[in-house]
Amino acid sequence: MSVKGYFLPFVAGLVVFTAAFLLLDTAVMNMQGLGLIFHQ
Amino acid sequence: MKDPHPTQRGPASAMIAFVVALAAVFLLAFGPVDALAAEPAAADGVAAGSYAPAPKLTAADYPTIAGINSRVAVWIFAQLHLWFAAFVLAVPIFVFIIEVIGMRTRDKRYDDMAYEFIKVAITAYSLTAILGGGLLFSLILFYPHLFTYLSTIFSASMFYYALLFFAESAVLYVYYYGWHWLQGGFKKWVHLSLGLILNAVGTTLMLLANAWLTFMMSPAGVDAAGVFSGDAWAAIHNFLWNPINIHRFVANIAYGGSIVGAYAAFKFLTATGNQEKAHYDWMGYNANFIAICALLPLPFAGYYLAAEIYAYSQQMGITLMGGIFAWLFIIQAVLIGTLFLSANYYLWCGMGRSDGAKRYTKYIKYIAIVLIGAFLVWFTPHTLVLTNEELKALGGPHHKILGPLGIMPAKNTAVNVMIIFTALSFMFYRRANKVATVSWVNAGNAIQVALFTTGIANIMFLGIYHGYFTNTVYKVAASIPQVLTTVAVIVGSITLDSFIYRGAKEVGPLHWGRIPGRAQYALFLLAVSFTWLMGLMGYIRSGIRQHWHVLDIMRDASPDAFTPTLGYAANVVSVAAILFMAMVIFVFWIAQVSGSKTLPAGYWKG
Amino acid sequence: MKIPRLLQAALVLAGVYFGFVVVFDVILEAVIPASLLVMYMFFVTAGVFMVFTYDEDQTRELVAPIKALVEDPAKRLWRNLVFAIVPLAVGGATYMQMQPGFEAPLELRTIHPAPPTTAKIYGKRVNLLQLENPFRKLEKEDPEQFRELVNEGAAVYIRNCQYCHGDKLDGQGPYADGLNPTPLNFQDVGTIAQLQESYLFWRITTGGPGLPKEAAPWISSMPVWQDFLTEDEVWQVILYLYDYTGHRPRSWEHE
User: In B, residues 548-577, which contact C (CB 8 Å cutoff)?
Assistant: First the structure.
């Protein structure tokens, strides 16, 4: 079971998907007139 | 030996065809309705503006029949009609898709399965009509003024509704009875088109009927005294019409899948040979697949409906989920969790069909732990039932740990997790019989794990941060990206898997029929839970109107205009569900009996 | 030594049950209600059943001791013992359950009563669906005056409400311990943060007696504040509640 062939793609996936999901969240919240983080 | 039941291919094109069909449906739906809007009062010979206000009724305006409780009669007829109608509308949807798959793969087994499904639906169709007639009669007999009021406003749509049944019946009968005649080449395309038209007509019927009941909840096109403006489209296109349309459309598919799943389970348990068992095992798998596919987006359709009810009327919204009906929603939560657990259990039991399943079964207990954990959060009530001792120990009715689990952000988070993990169970099931041959399989798996991890983390972030550390507007708004995250994870992982398993080797032929009998009971549980759940939700949807026939416009003055106790309501739903089950068993039996022949020796002359 | 599957299942169940009890009752010091624990354990049992029976071989292993107990001629003594004791135990447990106790009956409390569409407040019929806080718009239009009104609301609150709802608006006022149901905690995200100002106006002005007939009897101690406060004072208090806790009132869309 090649660890290197697994670990790098895993980390890359984490980074890319985290960015993508945060983008999704921000976009959808913006569409509803809100930001991602709550401001009083 | 070649696997006699290959995996489905071509669902994408089936989906496209279906979307096109839906577009046709909406054109059909809006077509005649535009005609309705164009000719308001003139059509029924009444001068524009001369509609009467909603009548103010007294108890004397409600006729009774000795020995019959009017409200229960209408309730049970309506619910039975709805169950059958949901089934009869859903079956053509997935039969159409299965027929397309059969045509694409040229695998006759799909065509045979589609035919068997529609056969079950045919008997159900006449029961739907009978119950619809019963509903109509009881409405006219017991609530004549309400019916007069509604039928004045919806006169045109009700008439078209009745006419459309000619189309529905004609198309359904040719579609079913002509199944074996319209085979091959052009005839098959004709047959498929009939299926499309059947779906279009059926959906239109549902949209029309939905307009009448949503009008009762969120009236439009009438003023505060109930005087109709003459604009039928306004009355149809009321605030809750589309939320109900979406919810019912998706729910019907899930429900229809569960009923044919129960049929397949029943046939599996009574099968007399390995081939028959294998056939019905395959059918049950497909039915469960249909039910799960539609079940996954369903919580969001439901949430959308509830949110729109709340947006329309704070009173209905709070009664629905914060007031008296909130307790019924705990039952709903338990039933929905049961649906998820049954569907997952069926998948796990089904993994035994593959010889390669052992590689994935070790993960099942972890999926189970997450599913059960999420389920517990899902049904934890906001108001806990406490003994006086516990009340004293807690210092009040609020539990500082369990209380927060009782409001929607926790539940949205939990249900999104349940949906993702059900999709995961399904992914493992699909993978069980395959060995990937691409060189980058490790990297592919790593990316899959990353996708699931980040998706779940995002769902938890949206649920916990926006649910508890912001305000109500953010809290409700965050549920949308939560849903989209779930959709993204499911679509993303399926797409990725399709690449990882390109050209994959099969471990061996799937042993259709190699599944324990108790898995079939999971399919029964799916159908029964779904049925009871629909009955419960139907009661709630109607009950939140409380003492109104038409909300804020026409008051219900009948002696039965009270919110019954929760126990009583649950009993009525249970009785109706039992009646329905009896009728369904009759339907299954008829579908079977039509193929039996008795050769009576010496009975006939010659 | 391999633990028999049946014992494994039993240990898991026991572990989860005692886990709940230890975590909630002991560690977190917030008792888990028996009603909830029963439901939790029912579904944990269902889950354990699912995990232990999806595989045919494992199911055979699980059921083997039970089958042996029931079928194996060598286990006759155990069988007779179990068949004698189990019904007696079940009978005993049922008897204990059915025995009347001295506990007051449980009440299903509706935490969020549904507001009526209209209500008679201060002698006039008010439509709660359309009612708005007349001072809310000043938050943007005249912040100085808004501040003054909030302070006046604070004064009204301290003079009238803090005895039950607490000076920190957390439901921990000096009288709170003597009340059942306890006064609402406005800091909690599940109370005023989820509601519209018209709803608060209705609850404050009509108090306990104003609660709807469904899910009666209410034994709320909330006074009927329209008898003691002016309409303006009530709206000012509502401004203060939201201002102090940092929550925003729920806004609503109506087509």
Answer: 552, 563
Residue type for B243, please? P
Mean pLDDT of B326-335: 90
Nearest C-alpha neighbor of B284 from the set B292, B296, B272, B294 = B292
What would the two tokens of residue C243 be?
Answer: 């201002």
Which residues of B, range 475-504, sit inside 8 Å of A by Cβ?
477-478, 480-481, 484-485, 488
Angle CA(B373)–CA(B248)–CA(B267) in degrees, nearest 5? 75
Task: Give the up-direction half-sphere exposure of residue B429: CA atoms within 13 A in the CB hemisphere.
Answer: 24
pLDDT (tens digit per residue) in B415-454: 999 999 999 999 999 999 999 999 999 999 999 999 999 9
Predicted confidence at residue B471, as pLDDT, reads 78
- Alpha helices in B397-478, H assignment, sequence order: 408-432, 441-468, 472-477
- Over 80: is that where the pLDDT of C105 sits? no
Give residue C174's Cα distance to chain centre.
22
Least confident of B482-486, C67-71, C157-161, C212-216: C212-216
> Half-sphere exposure of residue B196, counting CA atoms within 13 Å on the CB side?
21
The predicted pLDDT at position C113 comes to 77
Average predicted confidence (pLDDT) for chain A: 89
Q: Nearest CA to CA, how far is C185 from chain B (Å)?
A: 9
Residues 6+ apart with CB under 8 A from C14: none
Q: Cα–Cα distance between B297 and B316 in angstroms, integer?
A: 24
Calpha distance B553→B313 (Å, rounded): 14
Tokens 């078209």: give the residue: B160
Question: Residue ranges per domain, chain C?
Answer: 5-98, 118-245
Comparing C-alpha atoms, which of B478, C248, B480 is closest to residue A37? Answer: B478
Closest-CA residue of C relative to B366 is: C51
pLDDT band, residue B24 (cuts 50/70/90): low
Query: CB–CB of B477 and A34 under 8 A?
Result: yes
d(CA B496, CA B70): 56
Contact status of B542 with chain C (Cβ, < 8 Å): no
- Which position has the token pair 């039933």? B335
Single-letter residue type at B29: A
The answer to whether B18 and B93 are in contact (CB under 8 A) is yes
Inter-chain contact A18–B480, Cβ cutoff 8 Å?
A: no
pLDDT at B107: 94
pLDDT band at residue B25 using 50, 70 and 90 as cut-offs: low
The C-alpha atoms of residue B351 and residue B428 are separated, in whole angstroms, by 8
The verdict on a CB contact (< 8 Å) between C129 and B315 is yes
Tokens encoding B51 = 């509609």
Cα dihedral value B521, B525, B531, B537, nearest 10: -170
CB contact B502 to C (< 8 Å): no
pLDDT value for C215: 57
* Res. B257 pLDDT band, cuts 50 70 90: very high
- HSE (side-chain half, CA atoms, 13 Å) at B455: 25
Whole-number Cα distances in Å, C161 to B93, C170, C241: 59, 11, 11
CA atoms within 13 A on the CB side of C158: 6
What CATH number was assigned to the domain covering residues C118-245? 1.10.760
Q: B222 φ, ψ to 5°? A: -130, 155
Question: Residue B494 and residue B448: Cα distance in Å, rounded?
Answer: 10
- Looking at beta carbons, which residues of chain A come within 8 Å of B485? 21, 24-25
